[in-house]
């Protein structure tokens, strides 16, 4: 027969091309399985804005509302809590929110109080370390985790601490200030979370 | 009747002539060193717990509902309404904790007697892979009851991947299949926990044993019985210091099994939660995505690694360092056969430096467990007064423990690669021969 003589080069070429084409096929077949782990269309759809009245939130009080299944803290900061904010600056990682935390809030909340109105803090209550919900510890008194506590947030998971503007303290595992979501005031006593103020976006 | 059995036996061996020789190779003609001590119980006990987890796990799936809406209630249903459901679940939860007890002791045995060293590196690597898969398996199983600790445990562990620069956020969403742990997450964890990872685990266990039987077992003296004199009571060519695994070590292991089951039964029947150490109280509250439990910490067997995450602060705007530290603490164990260049295997004949370092390493691990379980928050005020700054004390203590943990590997490398170790003479044969 004509092909009784083995041509090793030809044989190697055929083996290699078969392996490559087969490999491409395997990779292509894996894609749907990998993609099936992504958030489904249903999960992506659940993200409508949330409207909340502020009338019943007393100074120093915090209300938690769910937005995109995330807890959003709405705090009516008392004058003493606001007054304590600038004093924390030396102990914070990024007091001006313009360094490592520059992308943690919209431009209109990139200020000393991290808010549109000084007293109203609207913030996604998720620790920037590993995603727990920090506890609101608003009173300005000595705490077991900090004898000079000036009010703020304490994460139960890995003991990260934030001040009353969600700015992270130095020496804790969390790297950044907590996220300020897009929000705006519909009127003086109503806030909408998930939508930027007109003209800001 | 005897004829029927022997003819069936012949029928099988005609068609599978390698079956009987394989059995002999791994059981009656597998010669293990005759000087095994108490530390050698934990391998077979790990196998026992694995079987327990598979059997009780199969029965749990029969009543468990892997949906975010139904999971929590179905576990309560198993506990209250299913006949003997509480026993099956407690066997599974207690088994999970005891799995780590025996695995940690088994690993310590391997380190102490140098069982990871040449020629057993592959046995060690396969064992470490088993440990890794077991951690994933335990974590996903912990999420399934969908209590509040399950939910937040899932959130934190998955978020570990979120600290990876650039792709982190996308990766977290990909793992969870949503923007937070949800139905999709629970479903896939269930699939991985009950089928994918157990299959991997079984395969790895088979490979671990196969690799072990290729090279033969190490022993408390760390001498190679295959290199010693030949000829024992059963075979003139096999090691003089070896005895057949079956029946000698199977019978010995049965004693361990009896003792172990007695302890396990005591826990299952009298202390199923072990005061919150085996089952955490906050997991009796249904998952709530808006409230993190005030006392959140992993189950005890993860706390050492969790403490390392907690002790390393963020730097350069990222929390990845703590996560790297945690994965690094496990990766270093994988590399142990190459970090430790000492030729002497057993701690019995190693240098004093090694003995001190190993003791420090164990104490550091236990210290990290104490930090991770928040036990130090109770202990320190008792020891040093109630007005101390607990966070500062925790951090100082935990960081020292973390440094000692990593320091062990650094020291071991220097100690053995630079020839600082002064070893004692290793005997020719196991010390208890004849």
From TrEMBL, chain A:
Its main location: membrane. Keywords: 2Fe-2S, Cell membrane, Disulfide bond, Electron transport, Iron, Iron-sulfur, Membrane, Metal-binding, Translocase, Transmembrane, Transmembrane helix, Transport. It is an enzyme of class 7 (translocase). Its EC number is 7.1.1.8. Residues 97-110 have a biased composition (Polar residues). Residues 87-192 form the Rieske domain. It is found in: Cell membrane. Pfam families: Rieske, UCR_Fe-S_N. The chain crosses the membrane at residues 13-34. It is a single-pass membrane protein. Residues 85-110 are annotated as: Disordered. It catalyses: a quinol + 2 Fe(III)-[cytochrome c](out) = a quinone + 2 Fe(II)-[cytochrome c](out) + 2 H(+)(out). Its cofactor is [2Fe-2S] cluster. Binds 1 [2Fe-2S] cluster per subunit. Belongs to the Rieske iron-sulfur protein family. The Rieske protein is a high potential 2Fe-2S protein. The main subunits of complex b-c1 are: cytochrome b, cytochrome c1 and the Rieske protein. Component of the ubiquinol-cytochrome c reductase complex (complex III or cytochrome b-c1 complex), which is a respiratory chain that generates an electrochemical potential coupled to ATP synthesis. This is Ubiquinol-cytochrome c reductase iron-sulfur subunit.
Automatic annotation (TrEMBL), chain B:
It is found in: Membrane. Residues 235-372 form the Cytochrome b/b6 C-terminal region profile domain. SUPFAM superfamilies: a domain/subunit of cytochrome bc1 complex (Ubiquinol-cytochrome c reductase) (SSF81648), Transmembrane di-heme cytochromes (SSF81342). Coiled coil: none annotated. Its main location: membrane. It comes from the Bacteria. It is a multi-pass membrane protein. Residues 8-221 form the Cytochrome b/b6 N-terminal region profile domain. Keywords: Electron transport, Heme, Iron, Membrane, Metal-binding, Respiratory chain, Transmembrane, Transmembrane helix, Transport. The keyword Transmembrane applies. Its cofactor is heme b. The chain crosses the membrane at residues 38-64, 84-106, 122-144, 156-177, 189-211, 254-279, 322-341, 353-376, 396-415. CDD domains: Cytochrome_b_N (cd00284). Binds 2 heme groups non-covalently. The main subunits of complex b-c1 are: cytochrome b, cytochrome c1 and the Rieske protein. Component of the ubiquinol-cytochrome c reductase complex (complex III or cytochrome b-c1 complex), which is a respiratory chain that generates an electrochemical potential coupled to ATP synthesis. PANTHER family: CYTOCHROME B. Belongs to the cytochrome b family. This is Cytochrome b. It comes from Dyella lipolytica.
């Amino acid at each position: 027969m004509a092909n009784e003589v083995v041509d090793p080069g030809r044989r190697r070429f055929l083996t290699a091309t078969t392996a490559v084409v087969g490999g491409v096929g395997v990779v292509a077949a894996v894609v749907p399985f990998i993609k099936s782990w992504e958030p489904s269309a249903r999960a992506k759809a659940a993200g409508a804005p949330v409207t909340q009245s502020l009338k019943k939130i007393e100074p120093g009080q915090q209300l938690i509302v769910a937005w995109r299944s995330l807890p959003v803290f709405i705090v009516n900061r008392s004058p003493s809590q606001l007054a304590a904010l600038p004093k924390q600056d030396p102990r914070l990682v990024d007091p001006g929110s313009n360094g490592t935390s520059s992308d943690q809030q919209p431009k209109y909340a990139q200020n000393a109080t991290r808010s549109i109105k000084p007293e109203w803090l609207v913030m996604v209550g998720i620790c920037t370390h590993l995603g727990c919900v920090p506890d609101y510890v608003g009173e300005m008194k000595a705490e077991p985790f900090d004898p000079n506590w000036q009010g703020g947030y304490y994460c139960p998971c890995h003991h990260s601490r934030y001040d009353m503007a969600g700015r992270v303290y130095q020496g804790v595992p969390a790297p950044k200030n907590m996220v300020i979501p897009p929000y705006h005031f519909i009127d003086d006593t109503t806030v909408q979370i998930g939508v930027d103020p007109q003209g800001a976006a | 009747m005897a004829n029927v059995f022997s003819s069936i036996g012949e029928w099988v061996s005609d068609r599978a002539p390698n079956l009987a020789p394989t059995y002999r190779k791994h059981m009656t003609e597998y010669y293990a060193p005759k000087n095994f001590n108490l530390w050698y119980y934990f391998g077979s006990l790990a196998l026992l717990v694995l079987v327990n987890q598979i059997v009780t796990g199969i029965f749990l799936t029969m009543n468990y509902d892997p949906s975010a809406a139904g999971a929590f209630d179905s576990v309560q249903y198993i506990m209250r309404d299913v006949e003997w459901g509480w026993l099956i679940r407690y066997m599974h939860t207690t088994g999970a904790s005891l799995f780590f007890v025996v695995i940690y002791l088994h690993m310590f045995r391997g380190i102490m007697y140098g069982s990871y060293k040449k020629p057993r590196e592959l046995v060690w690597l396969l064992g470490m892979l088993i440990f890794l898969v077991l951690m994933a398996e335990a974590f996903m199983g912990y999420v399934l009851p969908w209590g509040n600790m399950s939910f937040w445990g899932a959130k934190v562990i998955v978020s570990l991947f979120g600290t990876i620069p650039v792709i982190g956020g996308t990766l977290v969403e990909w793992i969870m299949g949503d923007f937070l742990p949800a139905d999709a997450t629970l479903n896939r964890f269930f699939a991985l926990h009950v089928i994918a990872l157990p299959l991997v685990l079984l395969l790895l266990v088979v490979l671990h044993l196969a690799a072990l039987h290729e090279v033969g077992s190490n022993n408390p003296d760390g001498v190679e019985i295959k290199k010693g004199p030949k000829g024992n009571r059963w075979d003139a060519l096999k090691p003089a210091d070896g005895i057949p695994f079956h029946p000698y070590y199977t019978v010995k292991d049965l004693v361990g099994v009896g003792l172990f089951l007695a302890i396990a039964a005591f826990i299952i029947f009298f202390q199923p939660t072990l005061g919150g150490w085996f089952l955490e109280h906050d997991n009796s509250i249904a998952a709530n995505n808006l409230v993190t439990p005030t006392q959140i910490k992993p189950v005890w067997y993860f706390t050492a690694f969790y403490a390392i995450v907690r002790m390393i602060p963020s730097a350069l705007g990222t929390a990845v360092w703590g996560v790297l530290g945690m994965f690094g603490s496990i990766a270093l164990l994988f590399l142990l056969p190459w970090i430790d260049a000492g030729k002497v295997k057993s701690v019995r004949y190693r240098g004093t430096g090694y003995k001190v370092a190993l003791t420090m390493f164990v104490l550091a691990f236990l210290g990290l467990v104490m930090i991770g379980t928040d036990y130090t928050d109770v202990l320190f005020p008792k020891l040093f007064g109630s007005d101390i700054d607990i966070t500062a004390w925790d951090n100082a203590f935990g960081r020292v423990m973390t440094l000692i943990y990593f320091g062990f590997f650094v020291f071991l490398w220097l100690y053995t690669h630079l020839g600082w170790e002064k070893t004692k003479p290793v005997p020719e044969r196991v010390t208890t021969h004849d």
